[in-house]
Amino acid sequence: MQIKLFNKTRWRLAAWYAMVMALILGLCGLIVYQVMIRAYLLSIDLELESVAGTLHSVIEPNLKQPGRIEPVFQLVLPNLCLADSGCPNQQIPSHSQLAHNRHGIFSAVYKDKEYYIRFVNTSLKVIAVAGLKLNELPSTIRIDVWQTLKDSQGNRYSQKSLELHTQDNQTWGYIQVGRSLKELDNRLVALKLTLAFGLPTSIFLVGASSWWLAGLAMRPIDRSYKQMQQFTSDASHELRTPLAAINATVETILDLEHLSEQEARDTFISIRRQNNRLACLVQDLLLLSRFDQKTQATDRQPCCLNDLIIDLMEEFSALASNADLEISSSLEHSQPLYVLADEDQILRLFSNLIANAIKYTPAGGYVHITLKHSTNDAVIEVKDTGIGIAPEEQVRIFDRFYRIDTARSRSNGGSGLGLAIAKAIVEVHKGSIEVQSQLGKGSTFIVRLPASGTEEELV
Rounded mean pLDDT of 382-407? Predict the structure, then answer.
């Protein structure tokens, strides 16, 4: 169920990401397409304006009669073809022909850029043409300033028309200068093909990468979900154990026909012990929950770590003696060292660490507590000569309900929440906790808390 849920969510994330990126890429492609078209057309229009304007300026001052071809036409356009002559073999001049007609300053535009130049009289009939055959362009003549025409083969041309006047200001006719759009059309076809194949490929790659990224993004969620499942399972097991013991005790009593006062007392003691274990577990879970939600009240006041360690030594000396262990402390800082903290929580923190050290140290060993000052931190070390912790286990010992199989089994008691609570208390006080350990040689838990100074500094 979990795998199906996460896979479904992963597919949705990947699909949404691919759709959004497809929309963005599509819009970008459309914008690039339109910008390229406009930029190219603008350059063609400027080119046409330059050629048409120059021709107009050169030819118009020499015009005498409307519709009459003056010598200046042949001078400027040596390859000009008169419409009434038919020009059956009219071709775009070659490079060698252009070399022999250098006086025709506009001849060069025919060869490389596929220009044509037409002269039209006031009756809208073609008088002369240079560059292309007459029958290649539409027979219907229009005098719009800007036009886009197609020849008989479907090639497009951009054309500009300018009105010509004679010397006495009569309308001579029109000059029409056109340029082939074949190069533009070829580029547009190439761009369309690029977009047609590139966009789906990009979307596919985006979809694949989004699937991978969605998996990476969901790993912490999946990990948290698994931890929550494990926490629920462990909590249920821990709660079930004392409840099962209480239930078994009650069932045993109910099966007895007669119960003496001593048996009744022993039964109630057993039930109370299991009930206390259950209450402690619930209390620890509630404490961790409050730390997670940052709702745990913290009464921070100057707390003397020297006095705290002395109290802890007195509290655990009997427990260490019963376990045949030596417990000692050393205060390397000559003056009392203070931290701004909740004293009850700090006491709980070090009680958990010392209790664990005593519990997992064999008889004949020792537990040593050290207090020292390092820069701005108060450093407390709890060192034991216990069984130690394997390196691969050290990164997980602060997880809730986590026990090392060979050491922290349920047979040793405890709920597996002690170190988790210790870490939560340290973090809430802006400190840090770490462990250094070797199997069979013992462990050292190092706690760093922000120091508030000595007693004289606080006063």
Answer: 78
Q: Of 187, 161, 154, whose CA–CA distance to 175 is shortest?
A: 161
Contacts of 74 (CB under 8 A, 6+ apart): 80
pLDDT at 99 over 60: no
Instruction: Show the tokens assigned to 3.
Output: 């795998």
Task: Name the one residue in this structure whose structure tokens are 């921070």.
Answer: 300
Q: In whole angstroms, what is the distance from residue 231 CA to residue 416 CA? A: 11
Phi then psi dihedrals of residue 366, to 5 deg? -145, 160
Q: What CA–CA distance (Å, rounded) separates 183 from 194? A: 16
Whole-number Å distance between alpha carbons of 208 and 212: 6
Tokens encoding 165? 């006047």
317-335 burial, b at 16+ Cβ within 10 Å, e below that, comes to eeebeebebebebebebee
**Exposure string over 235-254, b if 16+ CB within 10 A, otherwise e:** beebbebbeebbeebeeeee
Q: Which two tokens stand for residue 51?
A: 């050629």
The band of 164, judged by pLDDT with boundaries at 50, 70 and 90, is very high
Residue type, 246: I
Amino acid, single-letter form, for residue 15: A
pLDDT value at residue 439? 87
DSSP per-residue codes, 214-239:
HHHHHHHHHHHHHHHHHHHHHHHHHH
Contacts (Cβ under 8 Å, ≥6 apart) of 359:
412, 413, 414
Residues 250 and 54 sit within 8 Å (Cβ to Cβ) = no
DSSP per-residue codes, 329-364? EEE-SSS-EEEEE-HHHHHHHHHHHHHHHHHTS-TT
The region, left, alpha or beta by phi > 0 then psi within -120 to 50, assigned to residue 302 is beta
Q: Which of 316, 319, 342, 340 is nearest to 329 (CA)?
A: 316
Which tokens hold the place of 241? 């154990």
Tokens of 107: 């001849």
Burial zone of 348 (CB within 10 Å; 0-12 exposed, 13-18 middle, 19+ buried): middle
What are the tokens at 342? Answer: 């909740």
Number of residues that make up the chain: 459
**Phi then psi dihedrals of residue 414, to 5 deg:** 85, 160
Residue 344: how many CB atoms within 10 A of its CB? 12
- Residue 293 one-letter amino acid: Q
What's the Rg (C-alpha) of the chain? 48
- pTM for the model stands at 0.51
Span of 83-92, 103-112, 120-129, 215-224 with lowest mean pLDDT: 103-112
Strands 81-82, 126-130: pairing is antiparallel
